[in-house]
Design a protein that fits this description.
420 residues, five-stranded parallel beta sheet, three-stranded antiparallel beta sheet, 15 helices, flat
């Protein structure tokens, strides 16, 4: 490659320690053999793109790059930064190291792969990277970044109303690995997009003043004249304030609720569930329920079942990975799945909390389980029936709904789950 390699961005000097460290991190995480003819150009281009997505002070240089390949990258970057897609992506990649790193790593991989393909086609030792190669690599990296963003929204849980659930997320390596697998699964992108859209368009949560303790949750605060329900601090007021409150009302505590337990989702993955839109709808809803559980600080358990219950999942990575990638199998045993779920709640010592089991199935199995769901049980059962009917399930369900495989049907289920 003619001419020395030179960065195409402004705001972050390429000889600065932060630029060099970022390049080292990229190379270390990519862990591939870079094409020896273009290795420096590929590393520099990927580092430039990292800062372009991550930093608010970085821009594309207007000076022509003397390096032929880096000039083609500069022109593509200049065009990219003016697009609506880039501006949208920047809103969630800015100061987000993982997404910015993921874009750059995927760009580096795609660019390196396309360079080698181009070299093999030309039969030259010089791959002669051109603008089409750069453009294709950017497009491929952008698609992966979009998928990664959807995955991160579910795992990181930034929900409507500004509430943020648990903070744990995925490492860059885990996010890249899961994104790569999702990109190879039919409809995985649609499942992710639909799940996030469902939660994002739900009515915002009403903010309440809440207090938590080891024994339960206080529902909130209200005005009362009954001294027995008044907060202690309200009674330690100067006389004039005390007598005023006697007239207008003290601040009291609402009754204590049971501690929030778990959402436990059982999802049918039998062969019949792969007909039409059943899989897309049911898996999108399962992921949306996962986001809701985290925003409500409720535990979330998940099991697939067919002719038997499969592994119990509770870590964010395993839940998202399995919902996106696990394939169908034959057979259905609904009763086996329900009995296993109740046993899991007992073994987890949360059977006395406000648990909700949500089973999503097309109902192609007989259920005789009157003995396991009592009307006074604190564990509620929501049955979501997809294009079917099951009398046995209906008898033991707290709520039984015929699913409409569209957005309104999904929102109906999510609102029902959120209310219990």
């Amino acid at each position: 490659m003619e001419n020395s390699t030179k960065s195409n961005i402004t705001g972050i000097p390429e000889n600065s320690s932060v630029y060099r460290i970022t390049m080292e991190r990229l190379v270390r995480r990519v862990n591939i053999n870079l094409d020896r003819n273009t290795a420096e150009e590929i590393k520099t281009a990927a580092s430039d793109l990292y800062f372009l997505f991550y930093s608010g002070i970085t821009g594309v240089s207007r000076t022509r790059n003397k390096n032929e390949f880096m000039e083609s990258v500069r022109l593509k970057m200049e065009y990219m930064t003016k697009t609506k897609d880039f501006n949208q992506a920047k809103t969630y990649s800015m100061l987000n190291d993982r997404l910015s790193m993921l874009y750059s790593i995927n760009f580096m991989k795609e660019l390196n792969s396309n360079a080698k393909k181009n070299m093999n086609r030309n039969g030259n030792s010089d791959p002669s990277l051109n603008s089409k190669t750069v453009e294709k690599s950017m497009e491929d990296a952008s698609r992966k970044m979009e998928t990664a963003h959807e995955i991160e929204k579910i795992v990181k849980d930034r929900t409507p109303g500004g509430s943020t659930g648990q903070k744990e997320g995925l490492s860059v390596e885990s996010l890249i690995d899961l994104t790569d697998r999702a990109m190879n699964v039919e409809n995985a992108d649609k499942i992710l997009t639909m799940a996030n859209k469902l939660v994002d368009i739900m009515p915002r949560y009403t903010k309440k003043m809440r207090a938590y303790s080891n024994t339960g949750e206080l529902a909130g605060y209200y005005k009362t004249r009954h001294i027995s329900n008044v907060l202690s601090r309200e009674l330690a007021m100067p006389d004039e304030i005390f007598y005023s409150k006697m007239i207008n009302g003290f601040t009291g505590k609402e009754k204590r609720l049971l501690s929030p337990g778990a959402y436990y989702v059982l999802l049918d993955k039998s062969g019949s569930m792969y007909e039409g839109d059943k899989t897309l709808w049911s898996r999108s809803v399962a992921l949306a329920l996962f986001r809701i559980a985290r925003s409500k600080r409720r535990k979330y358990f998940f099991r697939f079942f067919d002719n038997k219950p499969h592994d119990l999942l509770y870590s964010p990575l395993d839940i998202v990975d399995n919902i996106l990638t696990v394939e169908a199998n034959k057979g259905t045993c609904i009763e086996c799945a329900l009995r296993t779920a109740l046993k899991d709640l007992e073994n987890g010592h949360i059977a006395d909390e406000t648990n909700t089991i949500i089973i999503i199935t097309d109902g192609e199995d007989r259920v005789n389980a009157d003995d396991i769901f009592r009307k006074d049980s604190r564990t509620k059962l929501i049955t979501v029936m997809i294009n079917g009917y099951n009398e046995g399930l209906k008898k033991i369900s707290t709520s039984y709904m015929d699913a409409k495989l569209n957005q309104s049907g999904a929102l109906e289920l999510l609102e029902l789950a959120r209310s219990v």
